[in-house]
Structures are given as structure tokens and as C-alpha cells.
Amino acid sequence: MKNNRSNQCRPDSGTGRRVAREQSSALGHFSSPADLRRYNFCRRAVIISALLLALIGIFTVFVAVSTSTLKASQGISKVWIQAAAVLLGAAGMLLLSRMPLSRLYRRLWWLFLVLALGILAVTIVYGSGPYGTKSWLAIPGTSLSVQTSEFVKALFIVAFAGHIRLLGERMDSPLGFASLLLHFGVICGLVVLQHDLGSALVYVFIALMICYSSGLSLRYFLFGGLGLAVMSPVIWHFLSDYQKARITVGINPESDPLGYGYQVILSRSAVIAGYPFGSRFLELEYSPILPASHTDMAFAVLSEQIGAIGAAVLFVGYLVLVFALLSLGRHSDRTGAAICAGVSAIIICQSVENIGMCLGIMPVVGITLPFISYGGSSVVALFLALGVALGASKPEHVLSED
């Protein structure tokens, strides 16, 4: 009897080894079940917060077009387009999130770079857009067009993260840093050639965020800042008069209250009018006459309608989304962490810049508010970028609870 009990309790029995293998397969590289639960919690937080923000975006577009001077049919069509973009983007995000794609991103990062370069080059040749931009590409056989730089953001993030992983410790060498600078410079240069200053700024922030999270030596950030300060007069010289006016008047709208500053003054007034609890439903004072109320100035419309409390809910949604993404990065390999940082950079940069320009404290450069502003390209592309981050942060052979 003693020997039987001993054999049943031996840890190296067949059953014990099988259970150990199952537990090891479920945990992957996680150190404990609690670590795995935190990982799955962060995944769900990313998905849920993105979907809630997108629903707020549909509501905002509805309010904006319902109170604007657009024809009723045009306004409702924009709401349906926004809703369709949310459904399409969310489906793409969920599909990509179920795939452990980190190995693909590590091995084929160069292919993502080639795709990004090709798409941007084609857009420069065949693209069109307002105010002299060439950032929109028509879809053959349809009346639709896409802003290609929105989709290239995810391609650039994957390629840049894979490039950094390939360099490894050589990233801090002068030659390694030069290769990263060339990689970024070519992509950003093609975006600048589209005369899309807002998107170019987002690409700069993405590169900075990925480099910082990957441990690039701080001396390069210092040298880069000094170089930017030296080159700023040259950059300013090559900006168009329209771009210069949007930057200067966006910071000081009172200098041109009936021209470029008109939009910012109305936007700021709309935000103030909604403080603290908002306005009666669809009875807004400033939003109906606010230019680009459903796109660039969507935050002003939302603030006037639901007030400071509603705006606070928006801020919390962004914070949850960003912190959940960065937490997923800490559970990932170097490539996955860099990708999560890059996608977080999109949300941070665009939300801060867009809200800042609605308040008159940042230059107006035409950046959308993530998930809130009207725009099928930006909504679908951001959902897909989140799917890329979720897939990149998903270790292979991990039992997910979602």
C-alpha cells in the first residue's frame, strides 16, 4: 500500500508530466497564471475601449451633421459611412488579434517597408486632395477614395520595429542609427511630398516613441532636437503660405478672426458653451456654424453637446486604451513591444494635437481625433493598427481567455 501511494503521488508520473505540459503550453512565456490573466485583461481593455470610443464617434458625427448646414440626405449618409467603417475596422481588428503574427512581423518586416513605399509613391503620382494635398487615392470603379497615409502608419510601425530588432545592440552605433534615420526619413519624406503636414508630424512621433521604448541612447534624441532647431528655418521656408497661416493663426486665432482664426475661435466657444453639463440635445449654438465640425473639430461638437463630463469620459477611454497597449508591450518580445508603442503613439499624438487645436493652444494641421472624427480611412486604419498590435503581442502557444 505504501508503495502504491508513493507511485500515485510521484511528480514524474505520466499524468503529472501531461498536466505540466498542458500548464506550460497554456502559460507560454508567462511566469504565472496571474500574469496570463493580466495579459488577457489588457487585451480585452484594448478591444472594449476602442469599440466604446468608436460608438462615441458615431454619436458625435450624428450630432455634427444633424446640426450643420448639410442636406439631410448627405448628413445621414456620413453617419452610415462612419458606422460601416467601425464595423469593418472592428472585424479586421478582431481577426488580426486572434493571430500570433509576431514571427511574421519579425521575418518579413522588409516586405511591409516595400509595401509602404509603394503605396506612398503611387499616391504621390495619382493622388489628390483639398488645399493642394495629394494624400487621397481613388478606388477604381467606385466613388470612394482612401487616405493612404492612414493605412501606411501600421505598415511603417511593423517595418520600423522589425528593423530595430534586426539591428539589436547595433542600434546605438552610428551606422545603425543612420540606417534607422534613413528608414524613417524616406517614409516621412514621401508623406511630406503629399503636402500632408499633419500626418508627417504623427510619423515623427511614432518613430520617436518606438526608438525610446526600444532603448535608443538618449544622446541621439538630444542631437535630433538640436538638428531640428537648426533646420527649422529651412523647413519653415519650404512650407506653403496656407500651412504657415494655419500654424501661426492656430496658436493665436485673434490675429485673423475673420479668416483662418475663425474656425478656432468658434471651436473654443463651442467647448466653453458646453461647460459643464452640455447643451439640450441637438440645440447647439456654435457647432452648426463651425467649419469641419464633423472632422477636425469633432471634439468641439462633442464638448458642446455633452459637456465637460462627457469629455472626461473620452479622456478616460484614451488613457485606458494607451495604458493597456503599453502593458501588452511589456508582455511581448522586442518587436511586439515596439509595435504596441508605435500604435500608442498614434493615439497619443493625434488626440493631444486635435484637442489642442480645438482649444486654440496647438496649430491647426488637419489631424483627426482617433475614433471620433468622421473618416472611414482613419477609423478602419486605426482599428487595423490595433489588431496588428494585439497580434504582435500575442505569444505563440498561449491559451487566451478572450
Report the radius of gyration as a whole number of Å: 24 Å
Unreliable spans are: 4-28
Strand content: under 5%
Q: Which structural class is indicated by helix and strand composition? A: mainly alpha
Largest sheet: 2 strands, antiparallel
Helix content: over 70%
User: What series of H and E elements makes up the topology?
Assistant: HHHHHHEEHHHHHHHHH
Task: State the end-to-end distance.
Answer: 45 Å
Number of separate domains: 1
Architecture overview:
The chain has helices spanning 2-9, 14-27, 33-66, 72-97, 102-107, 109-126, 148-167, 174-193, 197-213, 218-238, 241-251, 261-273, 298-330, 334-358, 376-392; strands at 136-138, 145-147. Helix 7 packs antiparallel against helix 8 (174-193) and helix 13 runs antiparallel to helix 14. The radius of gyration is 24 Å and the shape is globular. It has 15 helices and two strands. The chain has one domain. The longest helix has 34 residues, at 33-66. The chain has a two-stranded antiparallel ribbon. A hairpin with a 6-residue loop joins strand 1 (136-138) and strand 2 (145-147). The model is unreliable at 4-28 (pLDDT under 50). The protein has 402 residues and is mainly α.
